[in-house]
Amino acid sequence: MYTRKRTIIEGLIICLALGILLGAELAALAKAAPAVSQSNLVRLHIMANSDRLDDQAVKLVVRDVVVRHLSPRLAGVDDRKAAEAVIAAELGTLEALARAVLRIKGFSYGAAASLADGEFPERVYGALTLPAGSYRTLRLVLGQGQGHNWWCVVFPPLCFMEITGSTRLTADEEAAVLAMASTIDSQRPAVVEKRFLLLEVVQRLLKAMDLARHQEGRNGLEIAQRE
Length: 227
Prior knowledge:
Helix content: 55-70%
Largest sheet: 4 strands, mixed
Order of helices and strands: HEHHEEEEEHH
Radius of gyration: 28 Å
Oligomer: single chain
């Protein structure tokens, strides 16, 4: 009898200890998870070129590539401002990846990525309901952007949980996309550098014209004073 009671007591102690450990683990996870609220979200909005089946299908391929690229980069981010900074730094790469997917899949149109405010209808993600309204949004427009779109929450990463049965690239296609995206992205700074160089030339020219007008005004004043 004593042995049986001791076994029961030991079992209860073990259950209690496990319960305490589990509760502490859940509390730690809850504390580490980003707060989900309308003011602490970044939505993802991908707009297909058209409603043609091939345009809609490639939209999902682009979606998968974008989500897989952002997932590890947003890991550990705990507020919207930090998430926005990460996404803003990746805009050029995300656009290059989307364009590379389109080229590999045989589409001639391009893609444009931006981070701005966007309007969304009410949407339910499991137990979470997001009201209709304006949200900070990573927007990716494919071609004309006239087709049915796809949206989710990129921060916190709710859309990563949505993807099931996704359209996947083959290993060869993925390698080709990464190589092409790297080439596209590497060409971007050169264009930006040329633009800044042109702006600098224009600014110097305007400054020289201002100095010339100023000097001309001073000369005219000196002549008038002598007369």
